[in-house]
Fold this protein.
Amino acid sequence: MVASEISKLAINNEGEVTQKKIDVNARKIPFKDIRKEALTRNKSYLKIKDDSYYTQLNREEIKSELQKIHEEVSDDVDEMRSCLKNISAKGTGSSGMTTPQLWSHAFLCLRTL
């Protein structure tokens, strides 16, 4: 615990500005440690996939992933694969709106706060 003293300006009942001293005790934890702990605790909410993940998907897997997020399915596998990559990277589909399935980052931030 780290103790420090801060001064605060306040207006009293008579309308005069007074200076008050307040003792504050706080725990100093490096942000790096907080971030590391938060990432390990919330790992299930993160969607981290590299390009090799998308290249390994077959046609049916790509099609089912696109249908989960209500995107159009075409006959061209490469087109569907690039569409899925773009949606996962940018968080937006063809409609330009974010999909509820990609809101995991927002929930992670809210939970951390």
Q: What stands out?
A: The chain has five helices and two strands. The chain has one domain: 30-112.
